[in-house]
Amino acid sequence: MNGIIEGKTNAVKQHNNREEKMQILQAKAGRWERILVILRKSKARFIPEILVEKLLMLSAVVSIMALLLISVFIFSRGVPLIASVGLGDFLFSLEWKPIQGKFGIGAMFVGSLLLTSASLAWAVPLGLLTAIFMAEIAPPPVGRIMTRMVSLLAGIPSVVYGFFGLVIIVPLIRNYLGGTGMSVLAGAIILGIMILPTIINISRDAIQAVPLVYKESSLALGASHYQTIGRLILPAASSGIITAVVLAMGRAIGETMAVVMVTGNAPIIPDSLLAPLRTMTSNIVLEMGYAAGDHQAALFATGAILFIFILLLNLLLNFIRRAGKRYAGN
Amino acid sequence: MEKAIKMKSRELNLFYGNFQALYNINMDIEENRVTALIGPSGCGKSSFLRSLNRLNELIEGSRISGEVFLDDSAIYEKGINVVELRKKVGMVFQKPAVFPMSIYENVAYGPRIHGIKKRSELDEIVCRSLQSANLWDEVKDRLVAPANQMSGGQQQRLVIARVLAVQPEVILMDEPASALDPISTARLEELIAILKTRYTIVIVTHNMQQAARVSDYTGFFLHGCLLEFNRTEELFLNPRHNKTEDYITGRFG
Amino acid sequence: MPGTRIGEKALTCLLYLSALIIIGILLAVVGYIVYKGLAMINLDFIMQAPRRAGKEGGISSTIVGTLYLTVLSLAIAAPLGVGTAIHLEEYAQKESYFAYLVTLTAETLAAIPSIIYGLFGFVFFVIYLKLGWSIWSGSLTLAIMVWPTITRTAQEAILSVPREYRENSLALGASKWQTIRKIVIPAAIPGIVTGMILALGRAIGETAAVLLTAGTSLGMPLSPADPARSMSVHLYMLAMEGLSMERAFGTAFLIIILLLFINYLANRSMSFLSHNGG
After folding, report:
1. What is the ipTM metric for this complex?
2. Which CATH number fits domain A88-327: 2.60.120.10, 1.10.3720.10, 3.40.50.300, 1.20.140.10?
3. Of B86, B99, B100, the CB nearest to C173
């Protein structure tokens, strides 16, 4: 009898115990179930997805629109004037007399080309030598420091270079070589410094991109390091080096502030390195402040010519790149 | 008693551009079973696996014909929610790609995506998932540590925990042990044996012993065809196709 | 053989020499401006408004103008640039005509000289949209200019995010945008930030385009509709008109220090953020 009762109470206790446990378990499970329900129920929101995609696409479209707008506005302002003056006269006439309605940018056209060539003439060899030094000769830590320095050089804005030219280079030329100092030479020095980083960075990348196997096999054939550089590495990197030069050319021809500050800006074709000159870019920035009517249109026309120049250089770059790829592919 | 069919493919063809990667695949994948896919590399087993959660679509120019069913819904049907599908059909890749976040955040990534915001609920999911992936004891004291500091075996189990955290119904594994040492592999296989009680698992492996050890069914792929599909012991003991026999006895592959 | 050896020695010397020249140029430019400019720097120079066209007083309004222009241009260009990069790398089909067009556009925009931007900004924002010489005109023009920089660096950063991350995230049931937002962008953030810092540097130094679009007013700009003179433009005016060489040196010094700091930040952000991935 006792035993039975005991058994029963035990059973009841056990039962209660189990119930409690079950309740706790259920409470826990209930929570877990809720979590599972949320997990299972969540639906991907399709509309925002498509919206986002369209928005991203829009940002790309805006960039194309910007380029179109730039082209349209520069050309629509400049081309009518070129048409009325005649392209030949506009480009090659040496008479720039806005007040008399004579718009010939011959001097500026020549000035731009001259200054660009003069700066390339010294910056390309120096930049290329430095690139070879950084890629092939310099111990890695030195190479890293040089890379930092070149990127600093690239980061200095043109107006600061112009200012430096104005307070250092121009007086030096005036004191030691004569003239006013505001000259082709001053412009070429400053402009050359400004394009050095472009030349160095891109040719160094091109040199470093030449596969190590080439170099090793050449050295294994008994060629010296310099023979290898001269006969193998530089030719293999040539498309990159040409790219560097063309990019530098584009920068030089488009550069404005530094040039304005050190070249004297006389709208004549210079007869010596110490004579002043005016570039197309200088022409725009010097006269834009007060130009109106046809005069303003002529400045836009100058910009249009410059723009076409840059577009042509860009085409050339694409061509070089494609040619380089084909070469590398073979 | 036969188990229910969880997934099945019918006349499945897969193309990458002009290249046909799969030919008329018909396969039934049973619920709560491990199905192994074997075959020499390039035979299409991984492509088949990826077509089960439509991950093959990430490759530009891939096309498909035929059908794949999850339960009774055709997953290539128009209007099917791919995100919904991939939530139900989870995947573990060959190389464990842990995200550059903490261990906790890796596991919580999926649940967060699917709308769980409460910290306590996330905690519970992370804890349960790590426990299920046999990883909890090893990492419970350093849940906030960057996940990429773990060992390769731990990373693979973390990836599994991450998949478990979104409560999938099917787990696809693409050579999950190929980058692991033997001890980690053994732990992974133990884990698979436990997981199959709750999930349906499809595993691609190039390791024949592994297929024999962990799977209930095995499919042998060759040149984009499913050459033979059977119970694992049948396929290994009495292969019907002599190519299958050649492969499992190591004569090629 | 001895001949070649001497030749090689000479070549080595030449290479070292050219590296030295580059270092010399950098030290000369930075050193000279820092040396001359440091004397000018004090709190008054930074805090006081310019008087008598900049001949006297400080340069406070140009500092504010510079900040205004750069921050606003970055605020416009960053979402668009990063958006373009995401579109190109994640959504656009690689071989599509549209992707090619966008890439070509970015290349061309990067090559256009700043004076052309200035001309465009002048005729489009200042005149056509009637925004006048204002911070709006200047910032919008600058935004188009720095856009390619931001896009290109962001593209590279996005491209370097492992493909496995995307696959894993998608396989977990994340949507494409969720994957991009939560996995790709965080992993690419060092590169994206570096691009923005580089763009910031370019915007601070830009002169020609700002001169033609934001004007040369020395007044303190209050709203984006006001005209403003940036520090770079101020330096140009001071030096060209010979107003005050000391103040020109001071301004140049501040610009250089600002850019050195930005350069340092760019280097740091690249290494710091990439070491602490996320």
Report:
1. 0.90
2. 1.10.3720.10
3. B86
